Amino acid sequence: MIEVTREVCKTPWTIKLQLDALCTNPMMSFDIETSGLYSKEERKEAMKLTAENLSTEVHKLVSVVANNNGLSHPAITRTTHFIFGVSRSHSIIMVPPHEHSELFIWNWLSKYQGKLLIHNALFDLKVMYHRIKKLPVDYEDTMLMLKTLINNSDVWKAKTGLKDVMEGYYDPSWSLYDQYEPENPLDLNFLDYAAIDGAATYHLYDLIMEKCR
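Below the sequence we write its predicted structure tokens.
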């Protein structure tokens, strides 16, 4: 089992210092964690209202709040964590304290000259493009790469989820973790989970490259 270590940056100054250091990395994995813009209390209240006799337009608006989560449209989510995997066993996690810091990181990503390894880039880059209307200079989607290697008409034999293919390399609790919107963004269990995401994506890319040689 591969043990993963992590560094966490949570202030604008430490985030900037870490980004300056990462500029020299020729390659690293990238991932984000998101949460809904509306609090869980607001969602509960909105869910109650959906049962009332509301006009169609009001019902639609209330439903948007009631069903809000980290997978909602980027306009109603916030990026809570940026994860950079720099090896198969080490990740750097940035927790932006406010929107300005989030945009600072996105803009840095658009200028990064190394290769970014992203598992399911459609999600992460959709958020990036919504925020700053830019994409990374160079990136590989490890999920799409896997799809070219794992091809079977039976979907259950062709799973390309990160945990589906990498769970045997890391702490078993990683693949079982299901608390994706913690009340505390610095929750240690969540940070461990995020760190393994970054490291596992980096390691997956190495494994794919070995397979293709």
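The mean pLDDT is 92.
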